[in-house]
Each structure stands twice: as structure tokens, then as C-alpha cells.
Amino acid sequence: MVILGNLSERIPPQNLEAERSVLGGILLENSSINAVIEVLRGEDFYKRAHRIIFSKMIELDGKGEPIDLVSLKEALKKSNQLDEAGGITYLSSLLEAVPTTSNISYYSKLVKEKSLARELLSSATDVVKQCYEGGRDAEELLNLAEKSIYDISQKSISKGPVHLKEIIHESLETIDNIYKNKGLMMGIETGFTDFDHKTLGLQRSDLIIIAGRPSMGKTAFCLNIAAHVAIEKRLPVAVFSLEMSAEQLVFRMLCSESRVDAHKLRTGILENKFYSKLPIAAGKLSEAPIYIDDSPAISILEMRAKARKLKSSNGLALLIIDYLQLMRGGGRFENRQ
């Protein structure tokens, strides 16, 4: 294994020319700051002088004052930051950095990319440091690394405002579809009519907790929903079973789908007319997009990774966990927390 040398001696990712072009563009055309603010924050600039200048520009814009050499110089003077910003000579040079403001959004994205690269490098360095220092188990370090990268990735997501007319057409189509098909669910039907009427079906991003005393049928209820969604709707379903084995779950699903008494099947006193139903039910279930993972004491980190993999490879309409309190929490947290 090759370990890189001292990273602190290397220059972090940055694009000073793009930073100067962004600041110069704002000086040339004040209104262009709106496009920049959508992409950048003060800390995205690598050079300290640029961070100071950009912060003052935002401050001036917030007050409704013009952003030019005179107002910027005065604002920096008042806060005793003119020298830190490079002085009036450096401020003047920013105007020469960009001939036009038409590409300011592009320059802003270049600055943002370098900022994200620096954040990623910083997070990775921190994880490496903690790996060497010890004190945390491997799972905790993996969770830390994944969270750091996820947090950074979220910063690059900026949808921006969407005009209502871009959304309303889709909403009208949904309403029209419901009107033409009386009783049609907006979400995924579970097969339980009363439940579907209450929830309007399973909606995207819904979190539904099935609670009840032991042996009240919580698992059976969830398995029936899984079978209905996968068999009738042909939508992919994942079941994480932390208590029962995959074989036990399939046994239950076979009995439910074939309407066979599970007790009679276990004792071997099943009549032939019922026994013949099992292969038919088995055929339906084997063709259904149901994925079962019966890893015991699985952690949140492992489950999330497996769910993401399933989602990317097969798609995923429904995820069932049986049951939540058997999951292992990450790091020092108790399972129930």
C-alpha cells in the first residue's frame, strides 16, 4: 500500500482566475450578483482577500447600495479590512479580470467545483487522521466518511425556484386520471382497502410505522402488503428481516398466497386439494420482484448501503424492515435511540 506524502505541503484545489472574474463581473454589472449568490457563498472563495471582498459586496447589495470601487473601498475601510482585501490597487485590477459578465455563472461554477474539492479533501484527510489515531471502530469511521461525503454532495444540489406552470400540468394529469378512474389511488395500493382509503396508498418518501403487541400479526400484515405490491403491481420490494430467516418468511408468504393453513402444513396433515395450491403460489412469488435480506443485527449503515444498491440496480418502490428495534445503531448510540 502506498500512502501519499504530507498533503499539507501541497496547494489545495483552487482557481484564482475564476474567483477574480466573478468579483470583477459583479463590479461591472451589479445585478449579476444574483446569479452568483445562487451558486456561491463567501467560504467558497479560496483566497482570503476574495472572501472579504465578496462578503462586503453581499452586504452592500443587502443595503440596496451600489457595488463599485468607491462604495466597496469605503465599506472595507469602515471595517478596517481594506489592506486585507489587497487595497485599492487590487480592487481596481478586478475590473480588468473579466471583459464581460455574460460568463459569470460559468465562472461561479468553476469556483464552486474547487470549493467542493477542497471540502472533500479536508473530510478525507480528517477520516485518514482518525483511522491512524484509533479510538473509533471501523463501522463508526465508515459512517463518518459516508456522512461527510453525503453532506458535501448536498451542497452541490441547487434546484432553484420552479414556475408553477411547470408543476401544475403534472398535477392536473393526476387529478384527471383520478376523476376518470373513480377510486384510483394516488399512491401504491396495499391490498387492504380501509388502509388504502386512509392513506390514499403508499406515497413516495412515506415512513409508516406498524406498531402492536407481540404476536398480533405485524409481520404477516407487512408480508401481505409486500406480496400485493410485488405480484399485483409488479413493483420491486425489499424486505429486511432481522428476526426471522428468509426461509421462514417465504413459508409464511406461500401459506398466505395459497390460502393454506400454516399449522396444518407444518404438521403434515394438509389435504391434497390444498397441497396442490402451493406450486401455483410458489410460481407467482418466484416471478415477483421481492428481495429478502435476513442478515441478523444489521446496522443502519449496512442496510442503507444495500438499499441504495438495490435501488440503483433494480429500482425500489417499497422497503420493509422487520423490525426496527433489532437494528444496530452506529457508533456509541444504543439501538433504541
UniProtKB/TrEMBL annotation:
PROSITE patterns: SF4_HELICASE (PS51199). It catalyses: ATP + H2O = ADP + phosphate + H(+). It comes from Candidatus Schekmanbacteria bacterium GWA2_38_11. Belongs to the helicase family. DnaB subfamily. Its EC number is 5.6.2.3. The lineage of its organism: Bacteria, Candidatus Schekmaniibacteriota. Residues 181-337 form the SF4 helicase domain. This is DNA 5'-3' helicase. One of its GO terms (molecular function) is ATP binding. SUPFAM superfamilies: N-terminal domain of DnaB helicase (SSF48024), P-loop containing nucleoside triphosphate hydrolases (SSF52540). It comes from the Bacteria. GO terms for biological process: DNA replication, synthesis of primer. One of its GO terms (cellular component) is primosome complex. Keywords: ATP-binding, DNA replication, DNA-binding, Helicase, Hydrolase, Isomerase, Nucleotide-binding, Primosome. Transmembrane segments: none annotated.
